[in-house]
Amino acid sequence: MSRFCLPRDIYHGKGCLEELKNLKGKKAMLVVGGGSMKRQGFLDKAVNYLKEAGMEVEVFEGVEPDPSVETVMKGAEAMRAFEPDWIVSMGGGSPIDAAKAMWAFYEYPDTSFDDLCTPFNFPELRTKAKFAAIPSTSGTATEVTAFSVITNYQTGVKYPLADFNITPDVAIVDPDLVSGLPVKQVAYTGMDALTHAIEAYVSTLHGPFTDPLALQAIEMVLDYLPASYDCNMEAREQMHYAQCLAGMAFSNALLGIVHSMAHKTGAAFSTGHIPHGCANAIYLPYVIAYNAKEPEAASRYAEIARRMGLEGTSQKALINSLREKINEFNAKLNIPKTIKDFGVNEAEFKEKVAHIAELAVGDACTGSNPRSIDPAAMEKLLNCTYYGTEVDF
Ligand code: FE
Fold it and tell me: For residue 299, how far is the Cα from the chain centroid?
């Protein structure tokens, strides 16, 4: 048995933020991040729409990037005091992820992060509130997914929460909110979306419900990401929808080892954080080469290339074209070819790579990767992504 779960309503189109007017409820808690929504006037707009819906509104501001356990607990406490029947989260991935966890602790104050960490083991939500999500970046697609990541800064542990209970009820995908996105973020989040779609398409859990969404997302990213990067607003609008489609696919088909590697290398080096989408973009062509040694995955990568009209008559040539296309995109988007070029120090890389390989193999995304991997092979693969060498194993 498989389950396919999406928000009940996904509003999309310029100005659809206005749909907040039509939510039915008494009290809304609006959860936002560091201030970009406020500066651009979207916070005020959202508050006013919710008031027009006849709701009393309270705002929880200041959710940090990579939201902490403390922020989640503070938010849940504020919710218990205010008792909203709608939780509305607006912003990049972080405020939406944080609000999802706040929601669980609002409804179940006695639960713990360790309880929630077991995948697909959440208590039944929606006993107190429903959840609406409004993304202001075009990549994570947390507005339609069953995932949230919360960081415990005391122990350095990231809690990846996964359960269809936290798939939002309503997603509002309004491209006006991404019109001011810095181009670096357009590049990184766009490549994150492409990685979501490609990993979902070859995942061991892919199926007839997720495949069309993944393919459509890949096609749209290939068509629109370069122009979106060049600040063409029509292309940026299409990218906002493409990342959402990719999210619908991967929320149900899950991901693969590109994400395992990005998760475990993101904060591993003293030379600085490797942004999630940038890490994915670097690793993707190498992982395709590794996974393509598995025949089923190879035929699916070739199928992507064929559907996208890329060149090649043999399976091998088609897979090469797909990898070349990704390299071409990375070059256009100013994303380096290796993590060495990103600036990771060689001595530090060598010292840490074995441990990182072990952690990456243990990541939640490894299980649905189409080809299995052990720590020794992962270490070799990471070495390829450092030195830019061919994956021939
Ligand atoms: Fe991602």
Answer: 25
For residue 171, the CA-to-ligand 1 centroid distance in Å is 18
> What's the 147 CA to ligand 1 centre distance in angstroms?
11
381 alpha carbon to ligand 1 midpoint, in Å?
A: 19
What's the 141 CA to ligand 1 centre distance in angstroms?
9
What is the tens place of the pLDDT at every residue in 61-115?
Answer: 999 988 999 999 999 999 999 999 999 999 999 999 999 999 999 999 999 988 8
Min mean pLDDT across 35-39, 53-57, 347-351, 375-379 is at: 35-39
Amino acid letter, residue 196: H
Q: Distance, CA 390 to ligand 1 centroid (Å)? A: 24
User: Quick one: tokens of 258?
Assistant: 């590109």
Rounded to 5°, the CA angle 171-175-180 comes to 125
First to last CA, the chain: 34
Measured between alpha carbons, how far is residue 168 from residues 6, 133, 143, 172, 210 in Å? 8, 7, 6, 10, 18
Q: Which of 91, 200, 78 is nearest to 143 (CA)?
A: 91
Query: In angstroms, what is the span from residue 306 Cα to ligand 1's centroid?
Result: 24
User: Encoding tokens for residue 108?
Assistant: 């179940």
pLDDT attached to residue 151: 86
Tokens for 376?
Answer: 């020794």
Sign of CA dihedral 258, 259, 260, 263: positive
Distance of CA 311 to the CA centre of its chain: 29
d(C-alpha 21, C-alpha 28), whole Å: 12
Handedness of CA 198, 203, 205, 207 (dihedral sign): positive
CA distance 214 to 46: 31
Residue type, 310: L
Q: What is the pLDDT of residue 272?
A: 86
By DSSP bridging, strand 27-32 and strand 56-60 are: parallel
Strands 27-32 and 147-152, by their bridges, are: unpaired
User: CA-CA distance, 301 to 318, in Å (whole number)?
Assistant: 8
CA of 96 to the centre of ligand 1 (A): 14
Q: Which residues contact 81 (CB under 8 A, 6 or more apart)?
A: none
Cα radius of gyration rounded to whole Å, the chain: 20
